[in-house]
Design a protein that fits this description.
With 93 residues, this protein is mainly α. 84% of the residues lie in helices and 4% in strands. It has a two-stranded antiparallel sheet. Keywords: Endoplasmic reticulum, Membrane, Transmembrane, Transmembrane helix. Pfam families: TRIQK (PF15168). InterPro entries: TRIQK. Belongs to the TRIQK family.
């Protein structure tokens, strides 16, 4: 490597050794945000678990509603077919 004024070498480590005040500020803010987010993360996790558990009830309700709708359609189909057959039997007499 070349030496520059004063016999000091300019290498990669020397260039990265000094931190800019902006980088120090960002690191400090990052630490503060991390401390704040521990409780926020816990609250968010609890909220997500509550939502996940409630969606189970929602899914169960939708399945039951779909089954009831299917049974109602089958009932209506047989009711209409049987009522037409009964009417045809009465018309024949």
């Amino acid at each position: 490597m070349r030496t520059f004024g004063g016999g000091r070498r300019m290498g990669k480590n020397d260039a990265c050794g000094t931190r800019l005040p902006v980088d120090q500020y960002r690191k400090q803010i990052g630490k503060q945000d991390y401390k704040k987010t521990k409780s926020a993360l816990k609250a968010t996790r609890l909220k997500a678990e509550a939502k996940k558990n409630s969606s189970g009830f929602k899914d169960a309700f939708l399945v039951i509603a779909a089954i009831l709708f299917f049974v109602l359609c089958v009932y209506a189909f047989f009711y209409l077919n049987l009522s037409n057959e009964i009417n045809m039997d009465l018309d024949v007499d």
